[in-house]
Amino acid sequence: MEVKIGVQHAPREIVLESGQSAEEVERALADALAGKAQLLSLEDEKGRRILIPADKIAYVEIGEQAVRRVGFGNI
């Protein structure tokens, strides 16, 4: 799923494709904003970890879980 993160004082947002579920991303965000964690830590589909200071998060947009189709077929 696509996750977009706005960071304060940064002209561009961070966009990543995550293998985590929407609930996992939301739980990590809630923990970071509640002060349980100082960093929002997410992992993208390639296994890279993205760390963002919780106090610098402006917004987070969580996209829908999309099933990717491969090959040719009738539309």
Could you characterize the architecture of this molecule?
It is a single chain. The protein has 75 residues and is of the alpha+beta class. The chain is built from one helix and five strands. The strands form two sheets. Strands 2-1-5 form a three-stranded antiparallel sheet, covered by helices on one side. A hairpin with a 6-residue loop joins strand 1 (2-7) and strand 2.
Provide a compact summary of the structure:
The protein has 75 residues and is α+β, with helices and mostly antiparallel strands.
Structural class of the secondary elements?
Answer: alpha+beta
Q: Report the count of strand segments.
A: 5
Largest sheet: 3 strands, antiparallel
Tell me the Rg in angstroms: 14 Å
Look up the CATH topology.
SH3 type barrels
Output the number of helix runs: 1
Element order: H for helix, E for strand: EEHEEE
Report the portion of residues in β strands. Answer: 25-35%
How far apart are the termini? 23 Å
Helical content stands at 10-25%
Rounded average pLDDT: 89
CATH class category: Mainly Beta
Low-confidence stretches: none
Proper CATH architecture: Roll
Q: Kindly report the spatial arrangement of strands forming the biggest sheet.
A: 2-1-5
Give the CA-based shape. elongated
- Total number of domains: 1
